[in-house]
Write a structure and sequence with these properties.
The chain is an all-alpha fold and about 220 residues long. The chain has ten helices and no strands. It holds the Pfam family DUF3826.
């Protein structure tokens, strides 16, 4: 029993040490850029309404560091693409550009799952989802609610499928390099959802027209 207690204590201490202060990855970065990213991250954390100020600070830093990492990955890609276009021609140039894109994708994949893992030291699953929504403009729920409102007759399994695809889209949008690319990630899945609903027998043109009329009738704007 004493031995087991000792092991549990060591495991607990490991968690405490792991969840220690998170350093802001500011080295070599423009101070104004760092400040803007920290403020953006802070806005996301503020919506969580965390009562633990230390946890709030650490989560803010984790989010900011993720933005920094994404920026580094895309800057590395851009540098390699620029060099390829300036120094190579023909097939060699195309292959170098493709390689730079592939390396970027690999870097995004390698680092993608560490982000929610780091957040999980301070946040529960629902709060982590809220962070992801904050990084992607809340598009998941906006789109889901709009779709359900547009087609009130959706079945539960259809609603579940729509939500699953939107959540999947959010994972790609989180790592996109700018707002346009984030929305494009969702756009791809919105197209998939529309195709799915059409195959399920829904007339989307008719449903959308009726939806617009309902919105106007209740004094809303399209």
């Amino acid at each position: 029993m004493i031995q087991k207690s000792g092991i549990m204590f060591l495991l607990l201490m490991a968690v405490v040490i792991t969840a220690g202060a998170v350093d802001l990855d500011r080295e070599g970065r423009d101070p104004a850029y760092v400040e803007s990213i920290v403020k953006r991250s802070q806005k996301i954390v503020d919506k969580l309404e965390l009562t633990d100020t230390v946890a709030a600070r650490e989560v803010t830093t984790i989010i900011a560091n993720r933005y920094f990492k994404l920026n580094d990955i895309y800057e590395t890609r851009d540098t390699k693409v620029k060099l390829a276009k300036e120094t190579l021609t023909g097939d060699a140039k195309q292959e170098a550009v493709k390689a730079a894109e592939a390396e970027k994708d690999a870097a995004l994949y390698r680092t993608h799952f560490a982000f929610p893992a780091d957040l999980s030291l301070y946040l529960d699953a629902k709060q982590i989802d809220a962070v992801k929504d904050g990084m992607t403009y809340g598009v998941v729920m906006v789109t889901y609610k709009a779709t359900v409102d547009m087609i009130p007759t959706l079945k539960e399994e259809e609603k579940a499928q729509i939500m699953a695809w939107l959540v999947e889209a959010r994972e790609f949008a989180m790592d996109a390099e700018n707002s346009n690319k984030k929305h494009a990630a969702f756009g791809k899945y919105k197209g998939r959802i529309n195709n799915y609903l059409s195959k399920r027998g829904y007339d989307l043109v008719k449903e959308r027209k009726a939806w617009y009329e309902r919105i106007k009738a209740r004094g809303g704007k399209i």
